[in-house]
């Protein structure tokens, strides 16, 4: 475990192995972020803890519910909300057990919600079995805010990887949870069901308008900042 406490302009580099926990706390932040790298596809799941209230939001679950619960318990945090950045099964796999264990409300962007039902019916090479059935409690839309004590996460609709992909933006702390929309040096694939290279291009151009020091915490791989991803401000063609 790393105990580094980087500032938004000096994001920690995530170690790309499974189940390594990392502590990220932007300077002066009201919230504290734990990164867990979990199966099935080295998914980054984030435990966002409001320092004042000890309430927590989990962003994506992967197959990490046991580790997420243990981490929350060790921090004395209560998980009240689970958010999915999009409906792909590697991100949503443990939504059902984590929801059952915590009573947390589950949120996903409205036009990706059908994927939860679909995931319960489909086998994937990367999962031992289809994800258990689960129903969303919160159907997110552009601009929906999720409050966690004094911490506010704003939903930014960023379609392209899927039709209902979204990012969660904490403007006060300068942190963006970017799911599979923006990675360090690349973006999510745009060649599967519901994907759109043209929409991905527009979404990346939108993210390029955020302050350059914004810390970007993606669904896979290391963290970055908007300012480091200079390529997203200079996209001549749709992303393929
Ligand atoms: Zn995905």
User: Any idea what the radius of gyration is?
Assistant: 16 Å
Overall tally of structural domains:
1
The small molecules bound here are:
zinc ion
Strand content: 25-35%
Q: How many beta-strand elements?
A: 15
CATH class: Alpha Beta
Spell out the CATH superfamily: Ribonuclease Z/Hydroxyacylglutathione hydrolase-like
- Principal-axis shape: globular
Mean pLDDT: 89
The CATH architecture assignment turns out to be 4-Layer Sandwich
Q: Determine the number of helices (DSSP H or I, runs of at least 4 residues).
A: 5
Describe the structure in your own words.
This protein has five helices and 15 strands. The protein has 240 residues and is α/β, with parallel strands linked by helices. It has a single domain, classed as Ribonuclease Z/Hydroxyacylglutathione hydrolase-like (Metallo-beta-lactamase, Chain A), CATH 3.60.15.10. The strands form three sheets. The protein has a seven-stranded mixed beta sheet with strand order 1-2-3-4-5-6-7, covered by helices on one side. A hairpin with a 2-residue loop joins strand 8 and strand 9. The N terminus is likely disordered. The site of zinc ion has 5 residues, from loops.
Question: Helices, strands, pairings?
Answer:
Blueprint: E1 21-24, E2 31-38, E3 43-50, E4 55-59, H1 65-75, E5 78-83, H2 89-92, H3 95-102, E6 105-109, H4 114-119, E7 138-140, E8 145-148, E9 151-157, E10 166-170, E11 175-179, E12 182-183, E13 186-187, H5 197-207, E14 215-218, E15 224-225
Parallel strand pairs: 4-5, 5-6, 6-7, 11-14
Antiparallel strand pairs: 1-2, 2-3, 3-4, 8-9, 9-10, 10-11, 12-13, 14-15
Helix pairs in contact: 1-3
């Amino acid at each position: 475990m790393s105990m580094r406490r980087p500032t938004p302009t000096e994001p920690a580099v995530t170690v790309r192995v499974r189940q390594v926990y990392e502590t990220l706390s932007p300077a002066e932040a009201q919230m504290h972020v734990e990164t867990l790298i979990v199966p099935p596809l080295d998914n980054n799941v984030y435990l966002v803890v409001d320092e004042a209230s000890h309430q927590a939001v989990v962003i994506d679950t992967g197959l990490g519910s046991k580790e997420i619960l243990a981490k929350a318990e060790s921090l004395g945090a209560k998980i009240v909300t689970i958010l999915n950045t999009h409906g792909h099964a590697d991100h949503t796999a443990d939504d059902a057990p984590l929801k059952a264990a915590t009573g947390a409300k589950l949120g996903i962007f409205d036009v990706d919600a059908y994927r939860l039902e679909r995931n319960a019916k489909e086998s994937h090479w990367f999962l031992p079995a289809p994800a258990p059935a689960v129903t969303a409690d919160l159907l997110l839309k552009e601009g929906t805010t999720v409050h966690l004590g004094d911490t506010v996460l704003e939903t930014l609709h960023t379609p392209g990887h899927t039709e209902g992909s979204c990012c969660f933006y904490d403007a006060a702390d300068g942190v963006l949870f970017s799911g599979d929309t923006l990675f360090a040096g690349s973006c999510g694939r745009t060649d599967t069901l519901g994907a759109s290279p043209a929409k991905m291009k527009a979404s990346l151009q939108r993210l390029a308008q955020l302050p350059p020091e914004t810390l970007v915490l993606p669904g896979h791989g290391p963290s970055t900042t908007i300012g480091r991803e200079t390529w997203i401000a200079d996209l001549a063609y749709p992303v393929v």
